[in-house]
Amino acid sequence: xxxxxxxxxxxxxxxxxxxxxxxxxxxxxxxxxxxxxxxxxxxxxxxxxxxxxxxxxxxxxxxxxxxxxxxxxxxxxxxxxxxxxxxxxxxxxxxxxxxxxxxxxxxxxxxxxxxxxxxxxxxxxxxxxxxxxxxxxxxxxxxxxxxxxxxxxxxxxxxxxxxxxxxxxxxxxxxxxxxxxxxxxxxxxxxxxxxxxxxxxxxxxxxxxxxxxxxxxxxxxxxxxxxxxxxxxxxxxxxxxxxxxxxxxxxxxxxxxxxxxxxxxxxxxxxxxxxxxxxxxxxxxxxxxxxxxxxxxxxxxxxxxxxxxxxxxxxxxxxxxxxxxxxxxxxxxxxxxxxxxxxxxxxxxxxxxxxxxxxxxxxxxxxxxxxxxxxxxxxxxxxxxxxxxxxxxxxxxxxxxxx
Length: 403
Ligand SMILES: [Ca+2]
Ligand SMILES: [Ca+2]
Known about the structure:
By secondary structure, this protein is of the alpha+beta class. It has helices spanning 6-22, 97-102, 153-163, 168-172, 184-188, 231-240, 248-256, 393-402; strands spanning 28-29, 35-36, 57-59, 111-114, 117-121, 137-141, 144-147, 174-178, 192-194, 200-204, 320-326, 336-337, 348-351, 371-373, 382-383, 387-388.
């Protein structure tokens, strides 16, 4: 997995050179290709946009060893406002176990109907030019169905139990986790870091059952999104479920919910009615995660209000979501119908941003925002949901039962 290092290293040099051209007046050159003056005092970070299996990895020198004093992600409040212990950032209180056990069998595989139509994909007012957020172009889509929720651990467990599927992260033996979410014990065993994104660490034994490494589990997070699923894993899950991944155009159309020139699925107000409608990062990134939205890490896929008229939850925020499309940043301005992206490529496109996104750094919890990873990559902030041309038979039967 760490072979063929020359090409990725060259890619970073080329990207860095381009950024110096693109961002000549910026104080900050972001590792993931974004320009911005607003974060000039912040260290580089990118929500994992460039954490790929092919990324150049270098040994950690003693002086580069992850700091144990970084409090980000280690203190916060959960949805009920309970303070969490600093030494165990993601563990919920024991009294919640009964409730959590109840949701182990809770299904979150329902789909919503997205009526076809024409919309403007992308924007002529991009925040991140290098990401290819522009231009605004007219796209027409047929009707389709979209999962109402991100795929949960509970749903993914059903798939694994049924098929004995082994994820790519399990095969490789590691996956990427942001440093502040990793226990001190696990950090001590990490010997490599990603040259271009040192706050992301390849953790041995991190996989969908162990999101922060071998000493973590999902027992109390069965209704949270599955993490560490590669694009290939996501494709396999959706096929098992009688579905497929959404195209990028479908994802963005579903996200925009019929609104034009708006940042978020519901409009431009970050906190509509004074409430948090998505799981992102509050506080000073990356030093402090105040979790004003209720969550230091991921939230249940059912959390927060429906984000637009289609009834979708967490279509932005919580975890990044894979789409079908290969990544490209130069888009045709011409009208298109049911676009599926380029024929081939090296990276797949992901949408929606994650709980690790903050405006000062990864302002990508917007419908037009986009990023990419290689299809074998996986991380602790990356998940997916499925789409479908038709409602699968078992969901049709389920709908009839509910009538
Ligand atoms: Ca949050
Ligand atoms: Ca999401």
